[in-house]
Design brief:
By secondary structure, the chain is an alpha+beta fold. The chain contains six helices and eight strands, in the order βαββαααααβββββ. This is MaoC family dehydratase.
């Protein structure tokens, strides 16, 4: 965990890789809950028998489930002290280069790409790569945009 004393110290690391978070196992329960929350019950995610005979040999996490894990996965990478709040502002670019098969372990790596002063504090673009243990291709690469208010 990389700890920044304030927003200025964080901004000074623009262009740097901030580190990696802890590994997290993607479970079928998580996939099923996500399917229920979104209404996306495609067989490749929730039908164990059919998915086992499918192209990946097992159910795979929804791409958007992998994307939605980013806040949890990044919380172990870095923190900025003294913030009143951090708000997800959006995404610039998202890709899902490799499927995340149920039972896979994933973790986030983060790089501070851009930082801009805004009225409330700073707006940062953080490129997050969701790695899959044992797979050379990541499950997700996303440029997240966050508003950091001190």
């Amino acid at each position: 965990m990389r700890v920044f004393a304030n927003l200025d110290e964080f901004a000074a690391t623009k262009g740097e890789h901030l580190g990696f978070g802890e590994w997290h196992e993607v479970t079928q329960d998580e996939i099923n809950l996500f399917a229920d929350a979104t209404g996306d019950h495609q067989w490749i995610h929730v039908d164990l028998e059919k998915a086992a005979a499918g192209p990946f040999g097992a159910p795979v996490a929804h791409g958007y489930l992998t994307l939605s894990l980013i806040p949890m996965l990044v919380r172990d990478v870095y923190t900025v002290q003294g913030l009143k709040m951090g708000v997800n502002y959006g995404l610039n670019k998202v890709r899902f280069p490799s499927p995340v098969v149920v039972g896979s372990r994933v973790r986030a790596g983060a790089e501070l790409v851009e930082v801009a002063d805004v009225a409330q504090g700073k707006q940062a673009v953080v490129r997050v790569t969701v790695e899959i243990d044992g797979n050379p291709k990541p499950g997700c690469v996303a440029e997240t945009v966050v508003l950091l208010v001190a």
